[in-house]
């Protein structure tokens, strides 16, 4: 009972403050409601999944519809696991699993996602570190945790959503900070904890909390300290993470089939050529990253799996996955162009439903796991299938020159917006947007309270606070709000009032 109570504890429980009333009796259901009622959740409808929703019409997912699907899949996984008494007992031993917790985590996992998708994330990280010398930079998962613990307004004194420990822990895909990747130093680094290949010395590539939220991360993990290693996800976080992988692998392929970008000929040719020449490819000592031969990119994926995930890599499972994707994606779905007919819609629904069911049925629970996996994860066959599905999306969508052109413009937009807002804070703080001033005051207070050894020796706290405030402000905008705000700040519009953003 004590562990159950600890999972449901909120930080406000220790302060004596009365909270605004929740409609749900269950504290975890109340958390789910707090997230879905948040303005940060509503804004996800205007935030890029892969292509900006403002320019893609109704055919493509945005971050809101993606989050809804992740929550749906996460709850389905949890329901299936809890229905089996043996598996349910394992989950209890590993810290517990609640349906409302996994659904809340699915809904909330992208609250910190900035405008323009992962491109926006990388630009804000670069500017945070280079312009403002913020050692934590920017990371979407860490920004999500900052939203729910600091900068949303449901909680005590207007700070955060005051969520239960279990839901906060379930949002921690990577339960460490950038500068201290793995507390206790696991023998092998977990997924995301190593440094980015192109940025040595910058800390972990992925992390779920900034230094300013480290105390909150540690607090959320207290109920699980005897159940899972401190570097390992809770089982509810693992379910959310796996559901995110499943949703991403399937619905982005649906999207780009609908708009005609995924073409049968190119996808089928790549998969078939690797299948026809896999033995020859495997015999080659080196396959260069820029090798344009059909099948070469897929061979590079196979080798990367062996290099990074030897614990699960299996050539037979990989070959079977390629065959399955060739048949069910390329031949059964892509061979007939999408024309919005009833037959075409049924084909998409069938593909999505069959794959989601298969992947959900491939979930397993292990007490002892490898560092690069979670206690709740896909079985080897389904794991390899997800890698191949992601490859198709990455190779035939994300690496397109026209998307790269679009992203270069978005990079410039965000960079100019950071510069303009920073100059505004320097020039005239008193008439800067109210929200931006609030974020500056919050950040200044946080940096004042941090131990000095966490910050660079020559750190200027005002510059750090200004940088974190500007980054927080931009990360809370939609794609359209970011573009409209820069238009106004650049003098390219004479319109005084704009309903796209409110200052």
From TrEMBL:
InterPro entries for the chain: dGTPase, dGTPase-like, HD/PDEase_dom, HD_domain, PHydrolase_assoc_dom
Region (Disordered): 1-27, 182-204
Compositionally skewed regions (Basic and acidic residues) per UniProt: 1-16
Segments crossing the lipid bilayer: none
One GO biological process term: dGTP catabolic process
CDD domains tied to this protein: HDc
Gene3D superfamilies recorded: Hypothetical protein af1432
GO MF: dGTPase activity
Keywords: Hydrolase
Pfam families: HD (PF01966), HD_assoc (PF13286)
Entry superkingdom: Bacteria
Domain HD: 63-249
PANTHER family: DEOXYGUANOSINETRIPHOSPHATE TRIPHOSPHOHYDROLASE, DEOXYNUCLEOSIDE TRIPHOSPHATE TRIPHOSPHOHYDROLASE
NCBIfam families: dGTP_triPase
UniProt-recorded name of the protein: dGTPase
Taxonomic source organism: Saccharopolyspora dendranthemae
Taxonomy of the source species: Bacteria, Bacillati, Actinomycetota, Actinomycetes, Pseudonocardiales
């Amino acid at each position: 009972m004590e562990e159950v109570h600890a999972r449901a504890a909120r930080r406000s429980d220790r302060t004596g403050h009365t909270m605004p009333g929740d409609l749900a009796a269950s504290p975890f259901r109340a958390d789910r409601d707090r997230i879905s009622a948040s303005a940060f959740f509503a804004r996800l409808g205007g935030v890029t999944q892969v292509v900006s929703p403002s320019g893609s019409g109704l055919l493509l997912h945005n971050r809101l519809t993606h989050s809804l699907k992740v929550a749906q899949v996460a709850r389905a996984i949890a329901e299936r696991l809890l229905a089996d008494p043996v598996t349910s007992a394992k989950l209890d031993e590993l810290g517990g699993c609640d349906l409302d917790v996994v659904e809340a985590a699915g809904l909330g996992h992208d609250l910190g996602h900035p405008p323009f998708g992962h491109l926006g994330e990388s630009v804000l990280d670069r500017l945070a570190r280079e312009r403002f010398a913020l050692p934590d930079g920017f990371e979407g998962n860490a920004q999500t945790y900052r939203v729910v613990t600091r900068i949303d307004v449901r909680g005590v004194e207007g700070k955060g959503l005051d969520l239960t420990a279990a839901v906060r822990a379930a949002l921690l895909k990577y339960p460490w900070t950038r500068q201290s990747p793995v507390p206790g130093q696991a023998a092998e680094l977990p997924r995301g904890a190593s440094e980015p290949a192109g940025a040595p010395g910058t800390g972990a590539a992925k992390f779920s909390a900034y230094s300013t939220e480290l105390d909150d991360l540690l607090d959320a993990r207290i109920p699980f300290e005897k159940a899972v290693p401190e570097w390992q996800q809770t089982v509810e976080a693992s379910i959310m993470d796996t559901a995110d992988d499943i949703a991403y692998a399937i619905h982005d392929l649906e999207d780009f089939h609908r708009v005609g970008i995924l073409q049968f000929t190119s996808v089928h040719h790549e998969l078939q050529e690797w299948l026809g020449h896999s033995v020859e490819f495997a015999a080659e000592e080196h396959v260069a990253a820029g090798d344009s031969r059909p099948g070469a990119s897929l061979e590079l994926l196979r080798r990367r799996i062996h290099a990074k995930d030897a614990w699960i890599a299996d050539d037979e499972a990989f070959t079977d996955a390629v065959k399955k994707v060739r048949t069910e994606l390329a031949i059964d779905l892509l061979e007939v162009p999408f024309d919005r007919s009833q037959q075409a819609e049924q084909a998409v629904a069938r593909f999505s439903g069959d794959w989601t069911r298969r992947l959900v049925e491939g979930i397993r629970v292990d007490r002892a796991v490898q560092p690069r996996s979670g206690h709740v994860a896909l079985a080897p066959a389904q794991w390899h299938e997800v890698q191949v599905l992601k490859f198709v999306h990455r190779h035939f969508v994300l690496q397109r020159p026209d998307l790269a052109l679009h992203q270069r413009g978005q990079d410039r937009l965000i960079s100019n917006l950071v510069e303009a807002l920073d100059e505004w804070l320097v020039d005239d703080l008193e008439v800067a947007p109210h929200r931006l001033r609030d974020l500056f005051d919050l950040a200044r207070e946080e940096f004042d309270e941090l131990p000095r050894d966490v910050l660079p020796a020559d750190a200027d706290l005002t510059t750090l606070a200004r940088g974190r405030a500007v980054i927080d402000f931009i990360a809370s905008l939609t794609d359209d709000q970011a573009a409209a705000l820069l238009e106004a700040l650049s003098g390219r519009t004479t319109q005084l009032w704009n309903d796209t953003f409110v200052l």
